[in-house]
Amino acid sequence: MPRSRVVVLTNMALPGQVDSRLHPETHTECTKFGRVRNLLVYEIPGRCVRVFVKYESRDQAAKAMEIMNGRWFEGRQIEAFWFDEARFDKLDLGYRDGDTF
Predict the structure, then answer these.
(1) Closest Cα to residue 68, out of 47, 56, 52?
(2) Predicted confidence band of residue 96 (pLDDT cuts 50, 70, 90)
(3) 3-state secondary structure of 53
(4) How far is CA 68 from CA 16, 23, 46, 97, in A?
(5) What is the pTM of this model?
(6) Is 16 helix (H, G, I), strand (E, B) or coil?
(7) Pairwise CA distance, residues 9 & 67, whole Å
(8) How many Å apart are CA 61 and CA 21, to the nearest integer?
(9) Residue range 21-31: average pLDDT?
(10) What's the distance, CA 63 to chain centroid?
(11) Residues 17-25: contacts with CB within 8 Å, 24+ apart?
(12) Cα–Cα distance between 18 and 29 in angstroms, integer?
């Protein structure tokens, strides 16, 4: 997928274990890379938790990708992926065949 302003972070929490700290802690960390326009925590029950971060610019998103991918959070290694901006804007956040995350 080509670069966009949206990054999706996976493996930050297990399904059913999202707590009230995940959103604010992730937002605080992600603002270190640029202006966060939107951050959504999305749980696919029984499957995964995805954290979507939309930045002001692609360069800011690229910096987040570089630093967050492979980083450790509460004993789990984060994976970061590009996410289609139009799909994010439509809140089409669920799993689709072909998704690599």
Answers:
(1) 52
(2) confident
(3) strand
(4) 23, 15, 24, 25
(5) 0.91
(6) coil
(7) 11
(8) 22
(9) 95
(10) 13
(11) 17/49, 18/43, 18/49, 22/51
(12) 17
> Taking 80 as the threshold, does the pLDDT of residue 76 lie above it?
yes
Name the one residue in this structure whose structure tokens are 């992730």: 26
Segment 19-34 mean pLDDT: 95
Structure tokens at 43: 């749980």
- Kindly give the interhelix angle for 58-68 and 22-30, rounded to the nearest 10 degrees: 110
Average pLDDT score, the chain: 92
Please return the burial class of 39, using the count of CB atoms within 10 Å of its CB with bins 0-12, 13-18 and 19+.
Answer: middle
Name the residue type at position 94.
Answer: G
And the tokens for 74?
A: 């509460």
pLDDT tens per residue across span 36-75: 999 999 998 888 899 999 999 999 999 999 999 999 998 9
